Amino acid sequence: MRKKLLIALLALLLAFSLSACGLGDFIDLIMPRATESEMEGKYYLVSRVKDGQNLAIADQFLRLSGDGEATLELEGSSGRAGWIVKDGVFTLNVGGNYYEGSYKKGEITISIKNELCRFVLGKEAAEALIAQYVPGSAAVQPSHTAAQPLPSTQAAPTQPAPSTQAAPTQPAPSTQAAPTDPAPSTAAPTDPVPSTAAPTDPVPSTAAPTAPVPSTAAQTQAPTQAPTQAPTQPPTQPPTQPPTQPPTQPSYWASVTVGQRVTYGVYEQDNNLENGPEAIEWIVLAKDGNRLLLFSVHCLDCQPFNTTSGPTGWENSSIRRWLSASFYAAAFSAMEKRAVTQTVVTNPGNPETGVSGGGITTDRLFLLSIDELSRYLPQEASRIASPTAYAIARGSRATATGNTWWWLRTSGASSSNVAEGLSTGLIDYNGDPATDNETAVRPAFWLDITQAPQP
How confident is the model at residue 156 (pLDDT cuts 50, 70, 90)? Predict the structure, then answer.
């Protein structure tokens, strides 16, 4: 009875913990994650690889501070950066360019401008890691030794060839093993191991001493056929096929350029639910290594920036939750979702009104800020967009020109207002109240072209 009462009490405590702090916070309580203070320090570069080639490294490092700021020194130049780690994904923001990687205690692996860089916390730890490869050598040498397994796999197939030749030559002078050779000779081209079965047959072979004479003819024929076929076929195929089958970049996406229009994903647009959703058209705003920044050509939906009135920012807005849940689920297939990358989203203040933009977030889908719109689409005419029939049915209003206005993620005249892109291509820095339900939505995201399926 006492045991049942104790179990019931524990269940009540668990339920209370989940409801009070949320499932994510409860998991954090029982499975602590890396904190900013634990990650602070100077990380030294221990390896640097580009296109499969090891690059030279010198005194290059990444310094992280607890306020989300970082200093990156690479190629002899240094600059300030921002960083964030969430769900095991480490993201570095360098001048508006975002680079993603992984973090485990004391070590960061991240791809920066097509270079796979590995940083280790502390100079002593970095030197020890280098020394375990080639003691007393320069920092460049360990990265070369790490690349050696590639040629070693090519040399491996050449070893079975001489072993098959050596196996038949030894039984030839021995008269006892002669009767056993014709049977294993058929298995010799594929596996030299079966030759060990020869000792099991000589016992009955002693009863037939006259067999060695014809067996020598069988032995002379077996080496001429088996060794010549075995080494010629296997070694030639494996080295040539693997490099051609997995391309590093799909040919279509690698050829896409800034300003080009592409289709990716589907969403209801003609407001005819019977014929299914239509392909979404995007314009390429930027290209960074294997990533493309895509921005919807049309206004795809109509949503309030936030469903409740009062001060709000992108971080706590309902439209951010809608994009990451409802729109993400409806627009992309399981295969397409793999290429919609998580991105560190900074939220600078309004350059005209001075209102703060809020905290840094990590999102797969987001709205453009005033800064991003001005940078990627400096011409007003290039910003103009029309709403789809579905967006109009959802509340968006088209002007006489057929165009409409749409949300940015930057705060407007106050923390209760949000800036907009106007139907004329101008920017409305004061914006509308966040609860306005006539402003359209133009999503944006970074596409990983190495994961994106062919159109």
Answer: very low
pTM tops 0.90, yes or no: no
Q: What are phi and psi of 286, to 5 degrees?
A: -160, 160
| Number of residues in the chain | 455
The domain total for the chain is 2
Summarised one tens digit per residue, pLDDT across range 273-298 is 999 999 999 999 999 999 999 999 99
pLDDT bucket at 428, cuts 50 / 70 / 90: very high
Q: What is the dihedral of CA 297, 298, 302, 307, to 10 degrees?
A: 10
75-85 tens-digit pLDDT: 556 677 788 87
- Please report, for the domain that includes residue 81, its CATH number: 2.40.128.10
State which of 83, 116, 148 marks the end of a domain. Answer: 148
What are the tokens at 437? 């339900």
Specify if 269 maps to a domain: yes
Looking at the structure, do residues 135 and 265 belong to the same domain, yes or no? no
Residue at 167 is within a domain: no
For residue 187, being part of any structural domain is answered with no
* 224 token code pair: 């001429």
- Summarised one tens digit per residue, pLDDT across range 97-151 is 778 888 777 888 888 877 888 888 887 776 766 655 433 433 333 333 333 333 3
- Residue 15 domain-assigned (yes or no): no
Q: Each residue of 361-408: pLDDT tens digit?
A: 999 999 999 999 999 999 999 999 999 999 999 999 999 999 999 999
d(CA 299, CA 388): 6
Instruction: Provide the edge-to-edge strand list for the sheet that holds 417-421.
Output: 301-302, 440-441, 406-411, 417-421, 427-433
Asked if 391 and 440 touch (Cβ cutoff 8 Å), the reply is: yes
Q: How far apart are CA 342 and CA 200, in angstroms?
A: 63
Question: Is residue 119 packed enough to be buried (19+ CB in 10 Å), middle (13-18) or exposed (0-12)?
Answer: buried
Angstrom distance (rounded) from CA 306 to CA 326: 15
Q: Are residues 415 and 279 in the same domain?
A: yes
Residue 418 carries which side chain, given as an amino acid letter?
V
Domain limit, last residue, from 148, 176, 193: 148
Domain containing 330: what range?
A: 254-448
| Distance of alpha carbon 409 from alpha carbon 107, whole angstroms | 34
